[in-house]
Amino acid sequence: MRINVTKSFLPPIEEYQNQIKRIWETKWLTNNGPLLVELEEKLRNYLNIKNITIVNNGTIALQLAIKALGLTGEVITTPFSYCATTTSLLWENLEPVFVDIQKHDLNIDANLIEAAITPKTSAILATHVYGRPCDVEKIEEIAKKHKLKVIYDAAHAFGVDYKGKSLLSYGDVSTCSFHATKVFHTIEGGSVVCNDTEVFEQIKLMKSFGHVLDEYYVAGINGKNSEFHAAMGLVNLNHLADIISGRKTIFEKYSRELNFSILEKPKSNNSEELVYNYAYYPIVLPNEETTLRIIDKLNEVDIFPRRYFYPSLNKLKYLNTYQRCPVSEDISLRVLSLPLYPDLDIEDQERIIDIVNKNL
After folding, report:
1. Which of 6, 30, 228, 242 places its Cα 20 to 30 Å from the Cα of 360?
2. Contact 321, 90 (CB under 8 A)
3. What is the C-alpha to C-alpha distance for residues 195 and 251, in angstroms, rounded to an integer?
C-alpha cells in the first residue's frame, strides 16, 4: 500500500450523509448557506476569536487580505513556505522582499526585518512554518514602529494556541488553509481571521463579488465556499481532538526513535507557552545527498515523504531579481517531511524510522 506524506481524514460516512441531507432539505447549495454560517459560528467559538470568514482556499484568503489592507509597493516576506505565500503577492502586483529564516524554528528572522524596510514597504507577510509561531512580539513591535500591516500565513496553524490564545488571532490578518491535507479540512477551503471589524467587513464583501444584492461597492472576486464543503467541516470539527491526539502519538514516536545525533528538527520559541497541533514532522538532514538518498530508499517501498519546503522561494525562476537568503537556501535542500497522520500503522512507521536511520 502506498504511504504518502499525509492522508486526509474522512469521518464516518453516516455523519457526513446526515449533514448532506440538510442540504437536500434546504436546497441551498452555496452563497453563505446555513451550514456555512453554522460552521463559521462554531469556528469562532472553538478558536475564541472575534471575526472569521470561510473562503474557497488558502491562497484566495491571502489575496483577500492583501487587497483589503490596501497594500502597495514592497512586502517583506519569508523564503521558506509554500509557493502561495509568494505568488499571492505577485498576483496582487506587489514586490516580495525576502528576509532569511532562523535555523532553530525555520520561521522568518524578525531580527533581520527592520534592515529590509524601505519607503516602499507596506507590510510584513510571515508564515507560521509547520504551525510553529513566528516571533509575533518582535514583528508587532517593528510593524507599529514603522506603521506596517502584518499578515500571517497560518495555513499550518489551525488548532495551535500561543500564550493562551489562538495563533490565528495575531497580526492584522491571519489566513488559514482548510485543504484536504490539513489537520482540519473542508476538502477545499480556507479562512480569514481579522480583529478589525471594518477590514473584516471589506474582506467579506470582496469574497462575494463586491456587491450585496443590487448594490455594488467594490471590485470583488468569487471567494465563497459551498454547503458541501461546510458539511465536511462541521463533521470534522467534532473529531478534531482525536485527530490531533492521534497525530501527537505518531509525532512522539518519531521523536523518540529517529537518530537525532545526526538529524535536526525545528524547535519552537517559548515551547512551554505553546499548544501544538502536530501538523508536520520535518527533519533536517546533513546534506542534500543524504536527503535524496533517503527519499529514493523510501520510494522503493512505496513510501513518499515530501520536501516541504523546496525550493527556497527567493530562487523561484519567475521572480525578477535574486535576493540571497543563505539559511533558507541551505535548509530547503536538506529538509524532509515524513508521513504523519493518525492511522499511520505502527509497523509502517517503524519501517520509515529504520530506513531513515540506516541511510544517514
Report:
1. 6
2. no
3. 33
Residue for grid cell 476569536: 49
ω before 309 within 30° of 0 (cis)? yes
* pLDDT band, very low/low/confident/very high, at 270 (cuts 50, 70, 90): confident
Cross-strand bridge partners of residue 101: 108
Peptide bond into 11 cis (omega under 30): no
- What is the C-alpha separation between 283 and 335, in angstroms, rounded? 6
Q: Give residue 222's identity as a one-letter amino acid code.
A: N
Region 27-32: what's the mean pLDDT?
96
Q: Where are the alpha helices (DSSP H) in the chain?
A: 13-26, 34-47, 58-68, 83-91, 113-116, 136-146, 197-206, 227-257, 288-300, 326-334, 346-358
What totals of helices (H) and strands (E) does the chain contain, helices first?
11, 16
**Count of residues in the chain:** 360
Mean pLDDT confidence for 242-259: 98
* 76 vs 139: CA distance, rounded Å: 11
- Taking Cα atoms as reference points, which of 153, 346, 192, 170 lies closest to residue 273? 170
Report whether pLDDT(297) > 80. yes
Distance CA 59, CA 70 (A): 17
Q: Does residue 182 sit in helix, strand or coil?
A: coil
Specify the CATH number for 240-358; select among 3.30.70.100, 3.30.70.20, 3.90.1150.10, 3.20.20.70: 3.90.1150.10
Q: How many other CB atoms are found less than 10 A from the CB of residue 21? A: 10
